[in-house]
Design a protein that fits this description.
280 residues; Pantoate--beta-alanine Ligase, Chain: A,domain 2; alpha/beta; Rossmann fold
Length: 280
């Protein structure tokens, strides 16, 4: 596996691959890889000749009060996991390499970035769209793999690719969960033992609602209320939002009418966890 730290190294490798007519799958990550990432890499491995993983904690998607410095990192473990899956190249640039000394450009998607996590993380999605655009351009990937765990990110990136005619296919992949149902996330490592047990309430609340929706309940507002009631039973949990939105525009909806995303963000202590399900 090639460990590349510069944009030029990746571009050179990609030029050679393209000359040979090889297809490229990209898995963009911020490192500290877990089974959720592994599932994306395995899917990319199956569907492409070449798999590139980016491992970059992107500073532009963190707000001034967010945990950029504290964000967990373990590049050696990341490399081992990537190697075990047969990744061809891991791209691990510094912020200076990625953004240079000066940078005046960014990519912004309207509307879909305003609600849900965007409401409390105003710079987040500009940072994501900008870095993802750079990674798409550097890797010239045919396909890029994103987890449904970050459903708003998946919707925003898909919209950006559609609106701006990027030559890349966005593949959304299912949420990978711990045995008790907690969605895998790098942030889970911040939870202490008691908080970790409490965190299972997110999945409990969502699976109750998902089952009711599968059984035919179409009142999204009622389901959101019931999700909130289940979460409120857990003393360590504090709800940031419980929302139902239509998948295409992420606009608030009170009824399930077409593809609908139920998304939640919940603080367990100081740790903000997100989870969701999509129905219809
Ligand atoms: O989902 C993530 O880990 C990040 O937001 C991404 C897509 C790698 C961009 O930095």
């Amino acid at each position: 596996m090639i460990k590349a730290t510069t944009v030029e190294q990746v571009k050179k490798y990609v030029r050679e691959c393209k000359k040979k007519g090889k297809s490229i799958g990209l898995v963009p990550t911020m490192g500290f890889l877990h089974e959720g990432h592994a599932s994306l890499m395995k899917r990319a491995r199956k569907e492409n000749d070449i798999v590139i993983v980016s491992d970059f904690v992107n500073p532009t998607q963190f707000g001034p009060n967010e945990d950029l410095e504290a964000y967990p990192r373990d590049f050696d473990a990341d490399c081992k996991l990537c190697e075990s899956i047969g990744v061809d190249l891991i791209f691990h640039p510094t912020p200076e390499e990625m953004y240079g000394e000066k940078n005046f450009s960014k990519v912004h998607v309207d509307k879909l970035t305003e609600g849900l996590c965007g409401a409390v993380r105003p710079v987040h999605f500009d940072g994501v769209c900008t870095v993802v655009t750079k990674l798409f351009n550097i890797s010239r990937a045919d396909r890029a793999y994103f987890g449904q765990k970050d459903a708003q990110q998946l919707a925003v990136v898909s919209r950006m690719v559609k609106d701006l005619n990027y030559n890349i296919e966005i593949i959304g992949c299912p949420i990978i969960r711990e045995e008790d149902g907690l969605a895998k996330s790098s942030r889970n490592t911040y939870l202490d033992e008691e908080q970790r047990k409490a965190a299972v309430i997110l999945h409990k609340a969502l699976s109750m609602a998902e089952q009711k929706a599968l059984d035919g309940e179409t009142d999204a507002a009622l389901l959101c209320k019931e999700i909130a009631e289940v979460i409120e039973q857990e003393p360590l949990a504090k709800i940031d939002y419980v929302e139902a939105v239509d998948w295409d525009e992420l606009s608030h909806t009170d009824v399930i009418d077409g593809k609908t995303l139920f998304a939640i963000a919940v603080y367990i202590g100081k740790v903000r966890l997100i989870d969701n399900f999509i129905i219809g």
